């Protein structure tokens, strides 16, 4: 009797175990099926979207080296039958490539460096020190991010046209009776000066990034170096800076690239000089002025292939840079831990 | 003498101010001063003379002109507001989805990430407008783009199945905009990915053991933990949509920015341009406040 009773539950138990095991097997199989379906779906989605993203670049590559006549050849879609440099040559002529590249590189490179240094110092100041009105000032950093550049561009333009630091120049002029004027329009200082003072293109964002980054550093390290007699500046140089590698790289790449692509500021402050982006914006009109194209500009492909060539030239330097720094670019963002 | 009597904390505070000094100067010189000046400009008519500029006080005339007389400005502003409410949610959902996919482990992930971050590098508004006009403008009638980026046949098919036309058009519109979307979500994908990587894997393992489905853990773990980044991305996308490069000629991109620029530097009407910029700015701030009020409340911050 007792044996029976005791045997029954154990039988049930075995049965239950079996059921659990078998359902478990089914579950695993289900998981496998959905997992496989998901993998296939993901593959299609990613390949499709990568195609959308790479399409313009492939299109640019294809049409900038393609002779115009081959656009009418139905057997040619992507790979041209013969290659030509005519398109590129025309574009180089139209956008005056030497000066344009020099301007763009100088503006992007130098202001990226200046912005890096200033934003790092300011971000550090906001991250590690307590002083009165800090939150209010940081709110102002955020405000400078939200305000569209169009809002302050006209006064800035006028300010740069007759540049004067806190009325010092006009004082000098009044005292000595001179007529000295600094016109910074069409000079690089229009980009460098705001960058030095942490007010360059999207500087607020970079200050924010550095602040977040330096806030994650340990306080003990800082205090220890202060007890050892380091000044705050020396602490910054010898302890904080060596650890800031990822943040520095991220900010440098972003400032460089954004400055390179920026259209608004160069279009406003440069009337004679051109950068890649301003040259690109006016490429369509300028192409028509070129005599050997002017005769047959009614052919849409003549203009369009040259525009593709211009686009290719404009992105070539930064894409090359990206190919080499790609790993750092994608990983450093993750390590800086923007929150 | 007094400097030496300061406590350690006070001294530290002083050096903090020294660290942010460059920014304070820059803020006053290149931000606060022009901002106040442009506010003053909105009440003035400005004419450029050979030695600077002269101003006449005109009161609210610039604003009256913008609201009641200018045939273009308000129309373009309202359409760009509509655009923001339409595009920003799509961009956010799309980039979160892509970031979750890119955060999974699979072969070729490095390459996929590199490709998806391309728009961050080629973030030139000028280039995108040129590309849209030329490659996708269809004026050349190349066969490739007809099949790729026109969902006309698909739309007809869906309409015949009897689904509400507005819904069909909304979805096909998204399909048609897929180029725009993928090209404008680079930074957002990057930020979401950074956020996703701060979520410990153990959370998902624990919820998996408790029997939660992927759907559950998405809503109960992923969304709350990336919600601070959702709001950050929203603010970024709103500002980005409002200030991107536009071309009034081809009516693509953000045309308001172009109008403000042209009023100032083609018509030399600086006062009116400032008024336009201020109206636009107030609209942006207003929308940011609304979004922050609605979504900011639901944001979950992990207690550190």
Features:
A: 339 residues, disordered N terminus, B: 304 residues, mainly alpha, two-stranded antiparallel sheet, 16 helices, globular
Uncertain runs of chain A are: 1-9
Q: CATH superfamily name of the largest domain in chain A?
A: MetI-like
Q: Can you identify the CATH superfamily of chain B? A: MetI-like
What does the radius of gyration of chain A come to?
A: 31 Å
How many structural units, i.e. domains of chain A? 2
- How many individual helices of chain B? 16
Tell me about the largest β-sheet of chain A: none
Roughly how many Å apart are the termini of chain B?
Answer: 41 Å
The CATH architecture designation of the largest domain in chain A is: Orthogonal Bundle
% residues in beta strands of chain A: under 5%
User: What kind of assembly state do the chains in view correspond to?
Assistant: heterodimer
The residue fraction in helices of chain B comes out at over 70%
- SSE pattern of chain A: HHHHHHHHHHHHHHHH
Query: What's the average pLDDT of chain B?
Result: 79
Helical residue percent of chain A? over 70%
> Numbering strands along the chain, what is their spatial order in the largest sheet of chain B?
1-2
Mean pLDDT reading of chain A: 79
CATH architecture of chain B: Orthogonal Bundle
Total strand segments of chain B = 4
N-to-C terminal Cα separation of chain A, in Å?
68 Å
Molecular shape of chain A: flat
């Amino acid at each position: 009797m007792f044996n029976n009773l005791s045997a029954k539950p154990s039988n049930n138990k075995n049965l239950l175990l079996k059921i659990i095991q078998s359902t478990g097997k089914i579950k695993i199989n289900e998981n496998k099926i959905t997992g496989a379906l998901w993998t296939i779906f993901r593959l299609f989605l990613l390949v499709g979207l990568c195609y959308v993203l790479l399409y313009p670049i492939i299109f640019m590559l294809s049409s900038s080296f393609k002779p115009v006549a081959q656009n009418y050849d139905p057997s040619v879609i992507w790979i041209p039958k013969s290659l030509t440099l005519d398109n590129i040559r025309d574009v180089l002529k139209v956008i005056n490539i030497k000066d344009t590249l020099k301007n763009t590189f100088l503006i992007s490179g130098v202001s990226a460096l200046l912005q890096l240094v200033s934003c790092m110092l300011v971000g550090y100041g906001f991250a590690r020190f307590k002083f009165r009105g800090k939150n209010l000032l940081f709110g102002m950093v955020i405000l400078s991010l939200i305000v569209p550049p169009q809002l302050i561009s006209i006064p800035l333009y006028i300010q740069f046209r007759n540049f004067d630091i806190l009325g010092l120049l006009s004082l000098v002029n009044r005292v000595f009776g001179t007529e000295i004027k600094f016109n910074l329009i069409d000079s690089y200082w229009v980009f460098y000066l705001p960058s030095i003072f942490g007010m360059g293109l999207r500087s607020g964002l970079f200050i924010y990034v550095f602040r977040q980054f330096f806030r994650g550093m340990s306080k003990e390290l800082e205090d220890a170096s202060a007890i050892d007699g380091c000044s705050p500046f020396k602490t910054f140089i010898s302890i904080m800076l060596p650890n800031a590698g990822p943040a520095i790289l991220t900010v440098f790449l972003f400032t460089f690239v954004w400055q390179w692509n920026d259209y608004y500021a160069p279009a406003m402050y440069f009337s004679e000089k051109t950068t890649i982006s301003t040259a690109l914006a006016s490429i369509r009109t300028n192409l028509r002025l070129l005599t050997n194209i002017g005769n047959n500009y009614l052919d849409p492909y003549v203009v369009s292939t040259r525009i593709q060539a211009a686009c290719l030239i404009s992105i070539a330097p930064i894409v090359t840079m990206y190919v080499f720094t790609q790993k750092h670019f994608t990983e450093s963002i993750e390590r800086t831990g923007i929150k | 003498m007094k400097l030496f009597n300061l406590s350690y904390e006070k001294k530290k505070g002083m050096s903090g101010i020294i660290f942010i000094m460059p920014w304070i100067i820059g803020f006053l010189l290149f931000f606060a001063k022009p901002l106040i000046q442009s506010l003053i400009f909105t009440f003035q008519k400005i004419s450029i003379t050979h030695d600077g500029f002269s101003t006449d006080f005109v009161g609210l005339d610039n604003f009256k002109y913008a609201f009641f007389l200018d045939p273009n400005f308000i129309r373009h502003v309202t359409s760009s507001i509509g655009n923001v409410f339409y595009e920003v949610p799509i961009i956010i959902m799309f980039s979160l989805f892509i970031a979750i996919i890119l955060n999974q482990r699979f072969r070729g992930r490095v390459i996929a990430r590199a490709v998806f971050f391309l728009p961050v590098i080629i973030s030139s508004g000028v280039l995108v407008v040129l590309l849209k006009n030329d490659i996708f403008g269809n004026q050349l009638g190349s066969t490739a783009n007809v099949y790729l980026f026109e969902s006309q046949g698909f739309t007809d098919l869906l309409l015949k199945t009897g689904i509400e036309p507005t819904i069909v058009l909304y979805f096909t519109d998204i399909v048609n905009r897929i180029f725009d979307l993928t090209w404008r979500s680079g930074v957002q994908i990057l930020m979401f990915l950074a956020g996703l990587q701060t979520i410990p894997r153990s959370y998902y393992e624990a919820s998996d053991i408790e029997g939660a489905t992927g759907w559950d853990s998405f809503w109960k773990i992923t969304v709350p933990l990336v919600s601070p980044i959702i709001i950050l991305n929203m603010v970024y996308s709103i500002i980005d949509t409002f200030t991107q490069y536009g071309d009034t000629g081809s009516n693509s991109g953000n045309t308001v920015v172009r109008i403000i620029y042209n009023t100032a530097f083609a018509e030399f009407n600086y006062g009116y341009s400032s008024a336009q910029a201020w109206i636009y700015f107030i609209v942006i701030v207003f929308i940011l406040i609304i979004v922050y009020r609605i979504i900011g409340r639901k944001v979950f911050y992990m207690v550190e």
